[in-house]
Amino acid sequence: MPIHPRESDPAVPDPPAPAPEGAVRPPRGDLPRSGRPAGTGPDTDEEPGPDAAGGPAPTEDEHTVELKELEDRWRRALADLDNLRKRHTRELERERTAERSRTAAAFLPVLDNLELALTHAGSDPGAIVEGVRAVRDQGVNVLELLGYPRHAETGVPFDPARHEVVGVVQDPDAPPGTVVQVLRPGYGDGERQLRPAAVTVAKRE
Question: How far apart, in whole angstroms, are the C-alpha atoms of residue 40 and residue 82?
Fold first, then answer.
């Protein structure tokens, strides 16, 4: 029986020819390719660790040193503040003492004149009145120099900021609401007022 040659099917490729012995066979195109690019290791797709961008992470010892430094600065600030408070207290007390000394020294001449008036009271009793009046005027002048002027005016309208009413009188010669008599002088004005003047006021109709 005659054998007919087999016709080649165009859809089926011919098998590759055998490569010569010792030759390197080229890669086959029908082999599946790896999804990972060539040259990449197994850790290529992992996220970079904290040491990759910002350097080594601070250790516990570094945190402890920073905490101690902050605590030391805080303690030094507290000590400076306490020293400042104590120094301010000492300076304030020193200024108060100096002011009291200046005020007391201003009244020493007043006391000296009182002593002098009492010394001469026996030899000339009539001169004691003039001496006391002079001492009074000197004391009023001292208070005025210290910033506390004397107020003992009559016939002026009543001012609640400067006067303290201790009585109301009927006086036909005085306008209603005016000061008729000053029983105790006042000293100072406004915030620097030592005391208001004690007065009697004319009664309103």
Answer: 65
Measure the CA–CA gap between 121 and 57, rounded to whole angstroms: 97
Alpha-carbon distance 154 to 202, whole Å? 11
Lowest-pLDDT range, 17-21, 38-42, 85-89, 130-134?
38-42
Q: Which of 155, 154, 152, 133 is nearest to 144 (CA)?
A: 152
Whether the pLDDT of residue 1 is over 50: the answer is no
Burial label, 72 (beta-carbon count in 10 A; 0-12, 13-18, 19+): exposed
Pick from 188, 187, 182: nearest CA to 201: 182
First to last CA, the chain: 166
Largest distance between two CA atoms of the chain: 188
pLDDT digits (tens, 9 = 90+) for 36-85: 554 444 444 555 554 555 555 557 788 888 899 999 999 999 999 999 99
Backbone CA torsion sign across 84, 87, 91, 92: positive
What is the arrangement of strands in the sheet containing 197-202, beginning at the earlier edge strand? Answer: 163-169, 197-202, 179-184
Write the DSSP string, 59-121.
PHHHHHHHHHHHHHHHHHHHHHHHHHHHHHHHHHHHHHHHHHHHHHHHTHHHHHHHHHHHHTT
